[in-house]
């Protein structure tokens, strides 16, 4: 076996000091995986560094580089599969390439080759009699899954913007604005159909953390939860479903909040759900016990983050809490690459939003500047974390704050 990378994630197995992983590549043999991983609790920077060096020096390095350079081919192939409805067709049952071509109105020979590549990517599987079916990954690409919307965004506007990524690196301004002439939130505000696709695409990741957060965190009975920049309300609705004595306010820009109300009518929480339109840089609803900022701050630069947090701080009454859901970069250079999704997402922020991913200490600094105190960080699925903060003794403008533990998350 040949060393094939590895890394250290400080946000997994936190009590054991994080988790290290070593990857190995093996010759392809029938019925055996081509890649193995060895994981263990703890941090071993010297071992990781030596393992990674030996992998880079191995004869397979050129092949690995070619694989990296060809990465956009995979993204485009998956995007096209969504565009032509390939996985929707396969959802009806195993089909031949000819069947798929006929039902998608595509060239049979081209579809046959695409299916072969998608098999290589793990999107579909080949069965007997030259038939294909969806894998669990392929099922995520059906039209009824928000991952299909995510694929459309990443293969559409975002993909086209990435062509201008060099401009973002050279100037510090987004590739999206260089491509389209406006920043991406303004772009979506002017295009309601695209905005709905974007909101549904964000639901793909939110779904993966919403149930975990709503089940494992104690939302007190009678609490009012305010979801700031909550998009179509996926996270807030999950909390309300799991906590029948909790009420919620969805707060976002007008075109977003209107769509959220129109698309989601559920009798189980309708009387406890309301939507308010506004600007989170200026003012947020002041009646909340728990405020949520889920994947909002990573969209903005430090100055704008402090403005958003300061608006939240002004709204917080005595005993209120703020929950910030974000991915975290490692706080210190470990000598090994970050194996989480955070580093790639940081590049997406550079290219598209003008924001960035941050470390725990960097978020702590922003919270302090806005008048909060970071109390704890808890892990969530897909490398997400919830940062629990409370008002500090004085707010960002010197106004007094509660400065005392609230009866919610930290006290339980």
TrEMBL record:
<dbReference type="InterPro" id="IPR016461">
    <property type="entry name" value="COMT-like"/>
</dbReference>
<dbReference type="GO" id="GO:0046983">
    <property type="term" value="F:protein dimerization activity"/>
</dbReference>
<dbReference type="GO" id="GO:0008171">
    <property type="term" value="F:O-methyltransferase activity"/>
</dbReference>
<feature type="domain" description="O-methyltransferase dimerisation">
    <location>
        <begin position="68"/>
        <end position="141"/>
    </location>
</feature>
<keyword id="KW-0949">S-adenosyl-L-methionine</keyword>
<dbReference type="Pfam" id="PF00891">
    <property type="entry name" value="Methyltransf_2"/>
</dbReference>
<protein>
    <submittedName>
        <fullName>SAM-dependent O-methyltransferase</fullName>
        <ecNumber>2.1.1.-</ecNumber>
    </submittedName>
</protein>
<keyword id="KW-0808">Transferase</keyword>
<dbReference type="InterPro" id="IPR012967">
    <property type="entry name" value="COMT_dimerisation"/>
</dbReference>
<dbReference type="Pfam" id="PF08100">
    <property type="entry name" value="Dimerisation"/>
</dbReference>
<dbReference type="InterPro" id="IPR001077">
    <property type="entry name" value="COMT_C"/>
</dbReference>
<dbReference type="InterPro" id="IPR029063">
    <property type="entry name" value="SAM-dependent_MTases_sf"/>
</dbReference>
<feature type="domain" description="O-methyltransferase C-terminal">
    <location>
        <begin position="162"/>
        <end position="373"/>
    </location>
</feature>
<dbReference type="GO" id="GO:0032259">
    <property type="term" value="P:methylation"/>
</dbReference>
<dbReference type="InterPro" id="IPR036390">
    <property type="entry name" value="WH_DNA-bd_sf"/>
</dbReference>
<dbReference type="InterPro" id="IPR036388">
    <property type="entry name" value="WH-like_DNA-bd_sf"/>
</dbReference>
<keyword id="KW-0489">Methyltransferase</keyword>
């Amino acid at each position: 076996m040949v060393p094939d990378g590895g890394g250290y994630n400080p946000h997994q197995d936190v009590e054991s000091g994080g988790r290290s992983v070593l990857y190995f590549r093996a010759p392809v043999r029938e019925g055996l995986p081509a890649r193995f991983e060895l994981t263990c609790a703890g941090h071993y920077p010297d071992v990781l560094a030596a393992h990674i060096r030996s992998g880079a020096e191995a004869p397979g390095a050129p092949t690995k580089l070619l694989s990296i350079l060809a990465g956009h081919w995979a993204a485009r192939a998956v995007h096209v599969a969504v565009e032509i409805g390939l996985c929707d067709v396969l959802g009806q049952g195993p089909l031949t390439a000819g069947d798929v071509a006929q039902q998608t109105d595509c060239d049979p020979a081209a579809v046959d080759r695409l299916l072969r590549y998608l098999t290589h990517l793990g999107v579909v599987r080949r069965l007997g009699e030259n038939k294909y079916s969806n894998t669990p990954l392929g099922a995520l690409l059906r039209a009824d899954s928000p991952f299909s919307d995510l694929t459309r965004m990443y293969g559409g506007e975002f993909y086209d913007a990435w062509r201008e990524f060099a401009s973002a690196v050279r100037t510090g301004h987004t590739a999206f604005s260089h491509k389209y002439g406006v920043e991406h939130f303004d772009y979506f505000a002017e295009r309601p159909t695209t905005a709905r696709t974007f909101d549904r695409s964000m639901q793909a990741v939110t779904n993966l953390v919403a149930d975990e957060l709503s089940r494992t965190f104690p939302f007190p009975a009678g609490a009012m939860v305010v979801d700031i920049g909550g998009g179509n309300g996926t996270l807030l609705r999950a909390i309300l479903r799991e906590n029948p004595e909790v009420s919620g306010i969805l707060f976002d820009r007008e075109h977003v909040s209107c769509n959220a109300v129109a698309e989601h009518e559920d009798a189980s929480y309708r009387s406890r759900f309301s939507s308010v339109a506004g600007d989170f840089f200026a003012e947020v609803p002041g009646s909340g016990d728990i405020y949520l900022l889920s994947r909002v701050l990573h969209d903005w630069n430090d100055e704008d983050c402090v403005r958003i947090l300061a608006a939240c701080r002004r709204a917080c009454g005595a005993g209120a809490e703020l929950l910030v859901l974000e991915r975290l970069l490692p706080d210190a250079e470990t000598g090994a690459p970050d194996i989480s999704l955070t580093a790639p997402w940081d590049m997406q922020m550079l290219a598209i939003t003008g924001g960035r991913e941050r470390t725990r200490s960097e978020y702590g600094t922003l919270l302090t500047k806005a008048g909060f105190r970071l109390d704890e960080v808890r892990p969530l699925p897909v490398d997400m974390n919830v940062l629990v903060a409370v008002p500090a003794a004085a707010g960002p403008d010197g106004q007094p704050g509660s400065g005392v533990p609230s009866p919610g998350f930290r006290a339980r």
